[in-house]
Automatic annotation (TrEMBL), chains A, B:
<dbReference type="Pfam" id="PF02733">
    <property type="entry name" value="Dak1"/>
</dbReference>
<dbReference type="GO" id="GO:0004371">
    <property type="term" value="F:glycerone kinase activity"/>
</dbReference>
<dbReference type="InterPro" id="IPR004006">
    <property type="entry name" value="DhaK_dom"/>
</dbReference>
<dbReference type="Pfam" id="PF02734">
    <property type="entry name" value="Dak2"/>
</dbReference>
<keyword id="KW-0418">Kinase</keyword>
<keyword id="KW-0808">Transferase</keyword>
<keyword id="KW-0547">Nucleotide-binding</keyword>
<keyword id="KW-0067">ATP-binding</keyword>
<dbReference type="InterPro" id="IPR050861">
    <property type="entry name" value="Dihydroxyacetone_Kinase"/>
</dbReference>
<feature type="domain" description="DhaL">
    <location>
        <begin position="362"/>
        <end position="564"/>
    </location>
</feature>
<dbReference type="InterPro" id="IPR036117">
    <property type="entry name" value="DhaL_dom_sf"/>
</dbReference>
<feature type="domain" description="DhaK">
    <location>
        <begin position="7"/>
        <end position="326"/>
    </location>
</feature>
<dbReference type="InterPro" id="IPR004007">
    <property type="entry name" value="DhaL_dom"/>
</dbReference>
<protein>
    <submittedName>
        <fullName>Dihydroxyacetone kinase</fullName>
        <ecNumber>2.7.1.29</ecNumber>
    </submittedName>
</protein>
Length: 569, 569
């Protein structure tokens, strides 16, 4: 619904004033409309467009060089008055006559038509072109009765380009009518919009249904049907338009238009299927646009518009224009990139490693193997713990990550990598395949640890301990968790501290590691008394009290297995 | 809600592919992101940005000359993986190093951070800048903890402009961090969004309330309050940001951002008040933007972003860029228009009139006076008839229109206008002041009629009759109603036909008019049996059966009064 307004009856006027204030580099505000803020050559045909408000960027957003000279704005969903149309036309007139464009609605036909007659009487040559692109509103045989919807943009673009090119009024009118004859649109609506100050929507579509061919002010459509997939919707829209394809046409301009609350990503998803259907039909698409070009406040729905191109129309469709909404033409001198982009993961190459380090690398791969085996076995249990206060995918992520780490480690060993490289690529693979925050954390942990090792020197206890500290620093530097936040960090900190303390006191790495793993396990168990502090609102945070954190538990588990494997070597 | 999709789990990937297909003139699709489709100079710093999907145009819509070199896209509202970030960076790298920008969220900090470390290890210099503009998410003293919202656009714009200008990585990083330090945003949300395939919204705001400072993924805000007027909302947003205004700042860049279902006109209305408050605070606004720049699917809400400018930042903020969404810089060579636009209604001047025609003009003004008096008296009754199947404003419109017509006619008479001019301006004034379709129709009717008269020759019966026919033609040419549609036309057609028939058979104008007015009255009464056929869906159409059309009744009334006045002269 429309939520931001002061007095509803001043909504349209205030919105126009706000638009003109923001885009004063494009337009100047006049009573009932806007005119270009930049100089226009004397004698140029003026393209003046307009209609009701509530359809932005239709119509004021189309004003600028290469498109419209001025726009007239009525009240929300209501035609501007005859006087407003005539007034804005007089201000836009440069002596070359006026092409007056608007959607084909009774009120607009009347007010723009009467204004044109009034201006004629004053000696200004005005040609009116009502846009009639909506194939749902009348059959092709009576196309002149069709309504104007998102085809407005297309037809006005052609008119604006023709006028900017210096053509005279006869020619601009001919091309505008020709563009209108070759522009077709078909749309669907999912949900109605609410006028400023109104308590209820202007109309409604039954939940789960879509209205085919519904007009931009809620005018009756053809039928109501169940909402379909993007693929089927693309077929529905394109079939309807392709039925009117003129013989010999193999190029089209296209606009996939959102009505307000149907968002860009949805339009992009739909476009993949629309594009496929147009391609199947042997059509090349020229300068397509997807976005919001003719809206109906926050109505939910979309429409597809096609412009059947020939050389003449294509030149005008692709011509430069510069408006708040549609801009074409070179701002920068660019040329297409020609380098091939290889986005496949290349085969990793490794720095030369010493034989000793290669052996240690193999040793590390062996530790990773045990970890992967253990995590595979623990998948269900870790998932169960995680599900208490999370989405329950922790076990799956750990299993997937460690398996990928093992693959990568084995590949690196086979390629002759040293210890540091084996651990590093194992971490990378874990991060990339596990997904989620914990995958990235594990990747960071292993890669940071590897920074204390090398591919040439033998691994000393000091390096292992230093690696553990680097791992903790890495995780807390880029991760956000701190001690007490009920995350893996609650087990990692005591692990690292115990490892440092025990080795410093002269204990062997194996003994120190065992002590550290035990410390990690106690700390992981103790997370049961904590409440999560991080991240988004967690309605389940309280439910987790009395249960340990899955991430801390899995860290303790990995620490234990790794220690056992080191001891066995 | 999100309505258009095929498999929900492929929504983000498909949307990115569709975007890249539409805007292939800007971007090339790679796995997990897009890179510029145009050549980039070797050695240029690459600006790579990204984050979750569902925020279009953030982030892919910012790719192009003068802004980003590439964008990485995660799943809907989820960080891209470390591997994806690293992969896209490698493809965008031109040897000048990489500025990696993203919003300050745990998952993004982690994945972009880990990717940066991985790239460093590969010899690519990468600097990460998390955007922290959301003042609601942490106090100014701990600004580094703030989330990134619509300030993303602003900070990336500065980074892109600095890189495009050929600055080195140190300088680009410095300016990007500086821009981030000087960018603040504050937002409100009215209604949650629904993820593709989800049955329920991600979060909800109580009806009639707004959540202050709510994050773009539904992260907790500061508080919930009653929805306020546009004026109060502007105060709320600007006060919050002005509290952080750096000393000595008197110029700002500004972005008024809609989250998805809060539409452009609402933002423009809000802007009028925001602009007033910024002006009151002594701030000049440079290149403001209002629209959708960082969305959250179809979330309803908006945010205001300010960039505290100095000379260095202003140059970068206003620099040229060319992306699917934000474009700045000259496409056309233009200069500001300097002509004064006078949109006040000028004093009408009239062609020289004969004395006889001036007398007749006064006579016409006398007829209009009687009509205005009669319609004033009939206002309530006409409103009552109209209210049965319409909005009940017909009596008001007719009263207002005829009163304006009388004023205009008297003014014209005083200025020495002839008969044709008096009738024409009376019609124009009626159309302009009455409002609605019937106002425009009455304006058209009188002006068309005046075309059969002149300002020099005396009015003959033939001219009056011809005028009536022109009036009917005018009304049916531009109006859409036909006989039987239950409109004024149902009374006008028999009036004109009776006037023609009776005068042709030799009756006097007075007698013929009386007969024509009687025919109009009978026909108007007979509209009671008709059902409206025109215009939008009319749920009340059936209610109108058994009641005459208000427009036909008022035409018959005007015809009767006019005839009586003609007879009395």
């Amino acid at each position: 619904m429309t939520t931001i307004f002061d007095a509803p009856e001043e909504f349209a006027t205030t919105a126009l004033a706000g638009f003109a204030a923001i885009y004063s580099r494009y337009v100047r505000l006049v009573k009932g409309g806007v005119v270009r803020a930049t100089k226009v050559p004397k004698g140029k045909v003026s393209v003046v467009i307009g209609g009701g408000s509530g359809h932005y960027p239709a119509f004021a957003g189309y004003v600028g060089p290469g498109l419209a000279d001025a726009a007239v704005a009525g009240d929300v969903f209501a035609s501007p008055s005859t006087a407003a149309v005539a007034r804005v036309c007089r201000l836009a007139d440069q002596g070359g006559g006026i092409l007056l464009g608007f959607g084909n609605y009774a009120g607009d036909v009347l007010n723009f038509g009467v204004a044109a007659e009034r201006l004629h009487a004053e000696g200004i040559d005005v040609r009116i072109v009502p846009v009639t692109d909506d194939v749902a509103s009348a059959p092709a045989e009576t196309a002149a009765k069709r309504r104007g919807i998102a085809g407005d943009l297309v037809v006005f673009k052609i008119a604006g380009a023709a006028a900017e090119a210096g053509m005279d009024l006869d020619e601009v009118e001919r091309l505008t009518r020709y563009a209108n004859d070759r522009t077709v649109s078909f749309g669907v609506a999912f949900k109605g919009c609410t006028l400023p100050g109104a308590a209820d929507p202007l109309f409604s579509v039954p939940k789960g249904q879509m209205a085919l061919g519904l007009g931009i002010h809620g005018e009756p459509g053809i039928s109501e049907e169940d909402i379909v997939s993007a693929t089927d919707l693309a077929t529905l829209l394109t079939d309807k338009l392709l039925a009117e394809r003129p013989a010999g046409t193999n190029r089209v301009g296209a606009v996939l238009n959102g009505l307000g609350a149907t968002k860009y990503e949805e339009l992009f998803v739909l476009w993949t299927e629309v594009a496929a259907r147009l391609k199947d039909a042997g059509l090349d698409v020229v300068f397509p646009e997807a976005g919001e070009f003719v809206t109906s406040l926050d109505m939910q729905g979309c429409s597809l518009t096609l412009l059947w191109l020939d050389d003449e129309l294509e030149q005008l469709w692709t011509a430069a224009c510069d408006t708040p909404v549609l801009r074409r033409g070179a701002t920068f001198t660019t040329e297409p990139a020609t380098d091939a982009l290889d986005d496949t993961e290349g085969k990793l190459t490794f720095a030369a490693a010493s034989d000793a380090s290669k052996v240690e690398g193999k040793c590390i791969a062996g530790i990773v193997e045990k970890i992967a085996q253990t995590l595979k076995g623990a998948e269900e249990e870790l998932g169960r713990i995680d599900a208490i206060a999370g989405d329950g995918d922790h076990g799956q992520g750990m299993r997937r990550g460690s398996a990928a780490a093992l693959d990568a480690a084995n590949t690196a060993v086979a390629a002759g990598a040293g210890a540091a490289s084996v651990l590093a690529v194992a971490g990378d693979a874990w991060a990339d395949r596990a997904g989620g925050t914990s995958g990235a954390i594990w990747g960071l942990l292993l890669r940071s640890w590897s920074n204390a090792l090398s591919d040439t020197d033998a691994i000393e206890t000091d390096a292992v301990v230093k690696g553990a500290r680097l791992a903790l620093e890495g995780v807390t530097r880029l991760g956000r968790a701190r001690l007490g936040d009920k995350t893996l960090v609650d087990a990692l900190v005591p692990f690292v501290e115990a490892l440092e303390k025990n080795t410093a006191s002269g204990k062997s790495l194996v003994d120190s590691w065992a002590a550290a793993a035990a410390a990690a396990q106690s700390a992981a168990d103790a997370t049961a008394s904590l409440t999560p502090k991080l991240g988004r609102a967690r309605p389940l945070a309280e439910k987790s009290i009395g249960h340990p954190d899955a991430g801390a538990i899995s860290l303790a588990l990995v620490a234990k297995v790794a220690g056992e494997t080191i001891a066995a070597n």
